Amino acid sequence: MNTRRVTRQFSVGNEHTGIVKIGGDAPVSVQTMTAGYTWDIDACVAEVNKLSDAGADVVRVAVPQRKDTEALPEILNQTRVPIVADVHFHYKRALEAIEAGVHKIRLNPGNISDRDQVNSVIDACSERGIPIRVGVNEGSIIERKDKERRLEELGKFFADRRQGHMIALMIAKLEEYMEIFEARDFHDVAISAKSIDPRLVIDVYSEISKRFDYPLHLGVTHAGPKETGTIRTVVALGTLLASGIGDTIRISYANDPVYEVEDGLEMLYCLGLRERQGVELIACPTCGRIQVDLFELIQAVRKKLTNAIELPIKVAVMGCIVNGPGEAEGADVAVFAGDRRGIIYVQGVRVANVPEEEILDRLLEECLAFEAKVKAGDAQLGEKAVEIVPPDPIGELGSGKDKIAAGQVEQITIDQS
Ligand code: SF4
User: Fold this and answer.
1) Best probe residue, ligand 1, of 282, 289, 292, 335 (max atoms within 8 Å of C-beta)
2) What is the average pLDDT score of the chain?
3) What is the pLDDT, as a whole number, of residue 199?
4) Which of 251, 270, 289 is the last residue in one of the domains?
5) What integer is the mean pLDDT of 180-184?
6) Domain match, 348 and 250 both
7) Less crowded by CB within 10 Å, the N or C end of the chain?
8) DSSP conformation class of 140
9) Percentage of the chain lying above the pLDDT 90 cut
10) Which atom of ligand 1 is closest in space to residue 290's alpha carbon?
């Protein structure tokens, strides 16, 4: 991991939403965007609140129509997270959103480029202390209005389809656009330069980070379905974040945006860029030794523990005892499954041996009890009371019962004294 690159800092939000700092020494924040219509106030409020509950620090909404910006005052009134108005094509939507009290504006240099229009948005933001994200996108970077310039840009693009030209074009547009902000002495700006290609994302942000000291908003645009979008995103954003680049992130899946928030947070936890909130789950991939339905169990454990536990308790769910104890050594709470049973350990101490159908409830019970002990100062996270002693592979977990009954193996016990 490289040291985080130093950037300027600005704040977004107010006392009603809580203030989120972006850039500088602020933790990397997680953003997402609603998937529904902003004008549908009730649905939009419900979605924003759902995303905020999932851990989003900032939520963006699209405002393509007047009725979207008209809905903003009521949406802002009923939500408790900073809201960004995503503006394309119509600079007036930005002015209306600012008037409505939105907390941040996103402008796309690819479709709002008129200097006077940009200046009017900058001035309105400046007056109200609202930051702006300047977001270029690979898909909207090539000139559309000026036919001559479009031909020139397209010509260069098709003559050289390598990434180099696209990177140069994105940076040139950003430099040109940022000059408008510099001239206005407006510096509460974040920059993004997204593409669907993870290699281009890595290269363009690496270049941008050398040229600007504004906070960088990272993203792989239109990353696709979650199943493949996750890899696409982690390759690009994980690489950049690990090299110290990036102040705020947005993952873009063709799926419920709650996944974007969950995966964004998990990536930051894994990189040590955010302090984990809630349970950290470890689970084995299963193999031919498995004797419980571990995939179902781990999903059920995840569902059950996610909202129930606040502290970052490490919970290991292991399919058997072969690697279980070793892999779960660092866990606060662990369960090793056997023949339709599970043995549960807390801080290395065995506390229960229960049938498969009771594993879930007992695990939650033990996690809650452990959390209460930690909160009371009677236990510490990551601390072992004793080393984990593996359960008896044959007798206790019952995995060899049939063989013992058939006289194929002798029953053995492991001395746990
Ligand atoms: S813990 Fe056991 S079941 Fe799970 S992968 Fe390892 S050996 Fe296989």
Assistant:
1) 289
2) 88
3) 93
4) 270
5) 96
6) no
7) C
8) G
9) 68
10) 3
174 with 208, same domain: the answer is yes
Give me ligand 1 centre to Cα 283, in Å.
Answer: 9
- Distance (Å) of CA 123 to CA 95, 196, 234: 10, 32, 37
Among 256, 223, 227, residue whose Cα is nearest residue 237: 223
Q: Say whether both 72 and 207 belong to one domain.
A: yes
On whether both 182 and 201 belong to a single domain, the answer is yes
pLDDT band for 417, please (50, 70, 90 cuts): very low
Of 270, 296, 327, which marks where a domain is finished?
Answer: 270
DSSP 347-416: TTEEEEEEEGGGHHHHHHHHHHHHHHHHHTTSS-TT--SSPPPPPPTTTTS-TTHHHHHTTSS-------
Among 25-39, 208-222, 253-267, 381-395, which is the least confidently predicted range?
Answer: 381-395
The reply to whether the predicted model has a pTM over 0.90 is: no
Measured in Å, residue 285 CA sits from the centre of ligand 1 at: 7
> What is the mean pLDDT of the segment spanning 15-30?
97
Please tell me the distance between residue 282's alpha carbon and the centre of ligand 1 in angstroms.
12
Pocket test for ligand 1, best of 318, 327, 339 (most atoms within 8 A of CB): 318
pLDDT at position 146, please? 67
Q: Tell me which of 334 and 389 has the higher pLDDT.
A: 334
pLDDT of 113 strictly over 90? no
* Cβ-Cβ contacts under 8 Å for 237 (sequence gap 6 or more): 201, 218, 219, 220, 246, 249, 251, 267
Print the domain residue range for 367.
Answer: 280-405
345 is a domain residue: yes
Is the pLDDT reported for residue 158 higher than 80?
no
Ligand 1 neighbours (beta carbon < 6 A): 284-287, 289-290, 318-320, 322-324
> Rounded to the nearest whole angstrom, what is the distance from the C-alpha of residue 140 to the centroid of ligand 1?
48
